[in-house]
Amino acid sequence: APSYPEYTREEVGRHRSPEERVWVTHGTDVFDVTDFVELHPGGPDKILLAAGGALEPFWALYAVHGEPHVLELLQQYKVGELSPDEAPAAPDAQDPFAGDPPRHPGLRVNSQKPFNAEPPAELLAERFLTPNELFFTRNHLPVPAVEPSSYRLRVDGPGGGTLSLSLAELRSRFPKHEVTATLQCAGNRRSEMSRVRPVKGLPWDIGAISTARWGGARLRDVLLHAGFPEELQGEWHVCFEGLDADPGGAPYGASIPYGRALSPAADVLLAYEMNGTELPRDHGFPVRVVVPGVVGARSVKWLRRVAVSPDESPSHWQQNDNKGFSPCVDWDTVDYRTAPAIQELPVQSAVTQPRPGAAVPPGELTVKGYAWSGGGREVVRVDVSLDGGRTWKVARLMGDKAPPGRAWAWALWELTVPVEAGTELEIVCKAVDSSYNVQPDSVAPIWNLMGMLSTAWHRVRVSVQD
Questions:
Q1: 3-class SS at 68?
Q2: pLDDT per residue as tens digits for the range 303-324
Q3: 376 with 398: CB under 8 angstroms?
């Protein structure tokens, strides 16, 4: 057998660019795949996601990589082996985030502690259902470690009674319901607002949105079982508390209107499954709320308590976050009491392929992306322009048609157009929903100090080169 040099992971990590070299690892082997990047059947952008790191997390997304001929092909590019003394560092027992779960290395991290990350745009619209390991992660606090056998969900019933449900009881007492729903952070595409003026919040690109098939008990069924009526007179809210808490013991919390919680058509779930498997820890194991058509902040993870109240949740994240303001409001004049908490989100779309700054070959160019609207409103059209919005074409929408008012999941779209060498393209997309809501054309008029609801036309500039 040939003798190979040994490398550390740090040395492998320095080789990330075709201008230098592209190295990857598979198992304990090191490969120089620079010459294969342009030959990769999935496109160079996909293989470059693993540049400088391990192939396995990305290969696991596509079954073809397990075929023997693929592994044989990879062996042709072997240049070394990992040093045997490579070992992960021991976790810091004093770090409150030390118990967080492992994450997919392909996620684009916006903050490490707490962990907040989005899937790379190159993979975002590859599948209608987002793989669990690539689903965007929005955490505010350390991830709780929950023992499923001791878990209890507390539901405060009318008249002071309390319903306590184990995970097994939640599964056995109530019919399982499934719904395919997109969750989106109100700060999705915030980075575009920060280019107008600085904003507060994580610098999300276009990936603070993902779609899954959720399974669990209807919140409606659990509340009726606890003794609540179909309707309550006046304004009432269903409040949720999570098991994640700040150092002072205050849990993450949020609320939704009582009418939505009890509506049979709203499909609000106490979910314990995600894409056919138990919830991953980062996404709320063992139980989370899923409120379709509503900002992701209301879909509380690691759910510990449900209560009905005449007031919204008193949580900071309900009262002082996820609200929209006029462009004239600044940090000296903001009054959170003047703005309602965001519930249903406005219509949204983005281009996922090609990426900004890409050089694309002449001939046929396929533009891909996603579109979604809150409140169950169906996306009926996506318009795409290649010249900054002067002329338009209508993209092809993909996905099953949902019942009226229950279009909880995004639509993926694509458009194939001829392009000529030597041209510069400004690709623009805008979506229209079933209420004929449409995205605004620019960011400045909707700018706000928290960077919420960034839904202007998405713009991607590329060049066409031989």
A1: helix
A2: 999 999 999 999 999 999 999 9
A3: no
Instruction: State the CB neighbour count (10 A cutoff) for residue 262.
Output: 22
Tokens encoding 50: 């693993």
A 10 A CB-CB count for 253 gives 21
> How many alpha carbons lie under 13 Å from residue 184 in its C-beta half-sphere?
34
User: pTM for this one?
Assistant: 0.87
For 350-398, give the DSSP string.
EEEESPTT-EE-SEEEEEEEEEE-STTPPEEEEEEESBTTSS-EEPEEE
Spell out a b/e string for 315-343, using b for 16 or more CB atoms within 10 Å of the CB, else e.
Answer: bebbeebbbbbeeebeeeeeeeeebebbb
Question: Residue 405 has which token pair?
Answer: 């008012």
CA distance 9 to 24: 10
C-beta of residue 82 within 8 angstroms of C-beta of residue 8: yes
Residues 6 or more apart in contact with residue 422 via CB below 8 angstroms: 464, 465
Band (pLDDT 50/70/90 cuts) for residue 63 is low
Neighbours of 186 (CB within 10 A): 24
Listed residue (76, 75, 78, 80) closest to 5, CA to CA: 80
Q: What percent of the residues of the chain are helix, what percent strand, and what percent coil, each to the nearest 5?
A: 20, 35, 50
The pLDDT of residue 1 is 62
